[in-house]
Specification:
By secondary structure, the chain is an alpha+beta fold. It folds into 2 domains: 181 residues, Jelly Rolls (Sandwich), CATH 2.60.120.10; 107 residues, Arc Repressor Mutant, subunit A, CATH 1.10.10. The protein has 10 helices and 11 strands. Helix 2 packs antiparallel against helix 3, helix 3 packs across helix 4 and helix 4 crosses helix 5. The longest helix has 31 residues. It is globular. The relative contact order is 0.11.
Amino acid sequence: MLRKNTGLKKLIENQTAFIGPESELSIYDTYQQIEKVPFKADELLFCGMISGKKLIHHNQLKLNSVPQVFIPHESFIIAPQQNIEIDFPDADLQSPTSCLTIEISREKVNRIAEQLNHHQLSSDNCYNWQQQKTLHLHHTTATQKLLERLAKVFSENHQDRSFLIDLGVSELVMRLLRHQHADFLLSHSQQQPDHNGLNAAIDYIENHIEKPIDIDQLGKISCMSRSNLFKVFREKLQMTPCEFQRLIRLNKAKQLLNKGTRVTDVCFRLGFNNPSHFSRLFKGFFGLSPKAFQQNTLHS
């Protein structure tokens, strides 16, 4: 189970927990500012922000480096036995900082990974949870809605609450496994762009991020027909080539905004032709406008 400092007061990380057979779902509410609150988990721990902001310190950060900002639409995945410390810079009685955590057993993760592998068309067992470190991820609007739905079900005394929470946790694990697999494909394409057609296509998109996608050109580079190109992208990445480029662009935009690059410069540098369109896409993906996101992170 999740272990926390028993000396903390109720105003700090006030926990409400639902314990199931293979997972523990908790909601933590903090009502005052505090720094360096310790956390540790025995099992894989998913943390998703509901409201407010946290600053996360963990041992993978460089010495004297600033902590990582943690806001809604973002997740932290903490491997078993990893220690973190948390700051709450904005929490107060009127606007508490709220976070949903789910501690998931290895058995449940492995079972869902086996099910995903069984439904894969390819014979390689590509879905296995391999991370042994703390991960800071952006999650999609769909995942954010899943967390909010879990929090709502959690708070209701519904006769099917246990079943609904188990379904939601299973969906979350599936999303995490698919995210990890997509990250592996991206990393592999950077290291070995000539390994296969998909790697070649991914590498080309990443190195021509500012240009509109030419599907015919991409097919030639990957040695795939148009229909097969779309099929492979959907099978391996669950998105089309154009959707993949949009994802890469938006993640790059986030990096540039974190460095203080002006919003309009980010927009045109990454191939977006219209700042308003860029802002709508960014807000739909990250939950904040580019300007609000930049202010939130740079002022932390």
